[in-house]
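Bench log, entry 3. Co-assembly request; chain sequences pasted below exactly as received.
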Amino acid sequence: MKLYCLSGHPTLPCNVLKFKSTTIMLDCGLDTTSVLNFLPLPLVHSPRLSKLPGWVSKDGTINLEKELKECAGRVFVDAQPEFCLPERELLDLSTIDVILISNYHCMMALPYITEHTGFTGTVYATEPTLQIGRLLMEELVNFMERVPKAQSATSWKNKEIRRMLPGPLKDAVDVWMWKRCYSMQEVNSALSKVQLVGYSQKVELFGAVQVSPLSSGYSLGSSNWIIQSHHEKVSYVSGSSLLTTHPQPMDQSSLKNSDVLILTGLTQMPTANPDGMLGEFCSNLAMTIRAGGNVLVPCYSSGVIYDLLECLYQFIESANLGTTPFYFISPIANSSLEFSQIFAEWLCHNKQTKVYLPEPPFPHAELIQTNKLKHYPSIHGDFSSEFRQPCVVFTGHPSLRFGDVVHFMELWGKSSLNTIIFTEPDFSYLDALAPYQPLAMKCVYCPIDTRLNFHQVSKLLKEVQPLHVVCPEQYTQPPLTQSHRSDLMLELQPPPMPYRRCSVLNLPFRRRYERIYILPELANSLVPSEIKPGVSVATVSALLHSKDNKHTLQSVPKPPPMPPSKKRKRVIEEPPVALAPKPMLSGAVALEAFLATLQKHGITEVKVEETADGHILHLQAEDTLIQLEEDGTHIVCDSEPLRTTLRDLVLRFLQKL
Amino acid sequence: MPEIKVTPLGAGQDVGRSCILVSIGGKNIMLDCGMHMGYNDDRRFPDFSYITQNGRLTDFLDCVIISHFHLDHCGALPYMSEMVGYDGPIYMTHPTKAICPILLEDFRKITVDKKGETNFFTSQMIKDCMKKVIPLNLHQTVQVDDELEIKAYYAGHVLGAAMVHIKVGSESVVYTGDYNMTPDRHLGAAWIDKCRPDILISESTYATTIRDSKRCRERDFLKKVHESIERGGKVLIPVFALGRAQELCILLETFWERMNLKAPIYFSTGLTEKANHYYKLFITWTNQKIRKTFVQRNMFEFKHIKAFDRSYADNPGPMVVFATPGMLHAGQSLQIFKKWAGNEKNMVIMPGYCVQGTIGHKILNGQRKLEMEGRATLDVKLQVEYMSFSAHADAKGIMQLIRMAEPRNMLLVHGEAVKMEFLKGKIEQEFSIDCYMPANGETTTVTTNPSVPVDISLNLLKREMALGGPLPDPKKPRTMHGTLIMKENSLKLVSSEQALKELGLNEHQLRFTCHVQLQDPHSDADTLHRIYTHLKSVLKGYTIQHLPDGTVIVESIVIKVSSSAEDSNTKVLLLSWSYQDEDLGSFLSSLLKKGLPSGIC
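Structure output for the full assembly:
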């Protein structure tokens, strides 16, 4: 059993597991941090961005002013942003049988894997994961296509040139693998390969392996996966949370008794407490509004935003923000808010109870109804006429490189009254802000990452006790910036097996048993004999059928009766056809009992001689020797009828296996 | 032989108070717990004393599963759990869990408040009963205990309706509840995978009907409503608050919009608004089209359909009223019916099945004079129309489900005996499987023949697979030999050698040696060589070796030659073999006793 690691990003994993005869891809996360190296895509022409100076090497020999622009000491690529894809050379992607998706953030690379690679398999995901994942992909495509950039930049990728570049761009890895965003057509085609599954549903793959998603508590429909056969179990843990937010709580007990547990998607902010961050978020928001400024919250259009809105719903009145407009701007804002209300089965108990009343599970329905929260597909259209300040705007993309957020950065960046509050943990906020420098607006960083922290995960592992743990190498050492914090890493016995991008791990597995079915007819014909108290054995000779990785045993059909042979003589000369080999024997032949048995069969003249290892019996009338020893019996006899009689007598004393 | 037993306490050769007991693999399961609309006495509820004469049912049932929220499937639940007594798990889907208590409360109010019955379950009992409910998701495998697992499938019929697959070990039963094999305007079609249950328990409401296409029925319905409205008549459509009502509302709403009609459409009872809310929140349970477009346009937000007030019934002019309940046995629909029955311009459209004993059933059977309470009679002059909109599978649909699930046996419930008989014949003929139709209290026993799951040592399996060559040929099965070890609850199949090792047993070698005298005037070495040549020609396909140390070895049988002390032409052959080669050893000794043919050199 092998694990191929196609992504080095611990929270956006992409691994391939070869297990029995199946090839299973676990998640296909898209590393979007690469877009930080690109210039933002403004929705409205931005004089500032267009006036940025081009980059020319210090000695003036290399001029890339068309491709690269400088801003506040950093260099940015002026082209459509590109993403860092999972490794595509490590193994043939067309051999992948199935892809298991754990949550909507971990499926964004799907079109790159399923399209144009010869992939013919099936993708498994829960319904919320599919629906919200589709929305997020749609949004991404929309962000890119709304601001088309004809120019593509490749000269800077040249190794020689890159050596001379400053800062993060110089150290960017695998730049030749970076790709532009997919099209909506590719998204639709990729998602048409998705088959929906429910929590704890058991899906059979080729009769060899069973996979089953478990609630992971991180987002709507998010799951961990169990991949198992009758005797082996692999658990795949991706983004999971033990906090009480909106999704169904994490199913921990089903992870028990794993041979291997693949652990990914821990919190990216191990030192930031989500509750504390939420408090800070609210107080900064209120402070800015009271001072007459605007608040910008760059965020994903699904996920934590539901919790933020719920928190604000309780906070608005007490903080006297009843008249402040809240805007949610995204091409998928409406859909995201609507979809969140229809997945009762996937929500925490409290929210489910509301649906039974029947009331919408999320209070943002009420915020919309009372006009406190308004949503728009973009800054164009209705929004521009209805827009009032000071206000709070939730909009994407959290990288600040594309989407409506770019416009608000340009609009509000120059005033120190305004505040930008970062809540998403995926991007370094300093890097995100780099192309907007110098900036007057206040920046507040309250990343909310509800995924498991090291303390929670070590407790979890203690409970579920996997034999082996596999995890990204980042989890086996403290973070670079806090090298003294040995509590911010995994310490396990035996130590976890670390992986990095392009690793191929041999998982420590010893498969010893396989499930086989004995058909009723054969089962009834078996003759068990007890050899120890509570332990019986039966010898089995049967026909083995193997089909679709399922094995069955059935009785050997009786050979058809021999046709009466014309040449009787030849029949004797036919060598025996071994139908069933003789069983192995065990036990010992007790002297006294054996002598008694012999006597019963008319063999009375027996001379017994003691030897080092046992006895020799001399059957004087028959001129036959029987050597009885602890672990063997030897019959020396020239008469065939007598020999078979003696054989059967000896066999009575032995167990057959 | 293991057996599965099925006993209907209700819905055996009948429609109403569905309640079926299943015993499978030592587990007892109650499927549905409904009430009968046609009775007001003891026969209203299933006879739980069949399970036990004294007291609570908890010890006798492993779980209760409710297929959907219709009262003939869940109406007796609070009575069973709170008044008879059951504290075990009750399973139902989320929409059923949401809607079921509301219908129960409604039922309770009509029975207790309006009819003044006592000794009935209370509101508190409904609440306590619902606390025992564990929600089920579609396709989720729920482990009731270590051995019993259940899985729900989409059944159409009404919001949240489910079929359920019950499995213990390798035995299984599927119970369909009520289902619908054709998608309608708001729900999808039932679906199940090829799960090959030992018994498929199916409803058979429309066992003999093969209905025309849905489109035709819809056109007919709209035409009748439209004609009635045109001539200024009032149309009463008795429905249950959830289910058909929503489908017909969608139908009328789109028709009104298209035809630009002005006549008002009303929906009675406060339940409606709420009911539509349930549809909005459980939109994932509706059909694909509604699910796909719900963000742009929610089909359950009606523009033309307004809430009904009792006083509207006397308003002049045409109108359409949806009123509950659906079988005209009580409540608002009955009140309106009484008001409108005398006018031949008016019309009542019965869109669903009516249980025997209800007014709905009577007027559908052509009765024109009805005896009401207090000896009054009611002349029925309005037009009575029946449109089969209730979402049950028809004969074609039932056959289709059998083809999907491939059951080994079939069992029919929830239908009329005569109709069942007909369908039973058809099923037995077409699928060559046994079909049962037990009456209430009658037990059907089906013996199952499960195969025995065993763990086989991978070494043994691989060894056997390798013998068959790299590509297994299904026509050439391979024989395998091994030892089955039965210890506690585990069954392991291993090679004999491994069995010895695992059980800590010593091997006992049984050997045989025999002497054969042979007349052969050659040197010992030549005789041995002649034996070798002879055996080579007789034993095809065996390994035969002539070793330089003066032995011939056939498989593991050793043959040696020495000359007799008295006569050098008499050779003494010594054969020695182990018990494992008994057949061959015995064969060789008798073969050699016959001497060597003269022809060999």
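Chain B has a mean pLDDT of 88. The first helix of chain B runs from residue 71 to 74.
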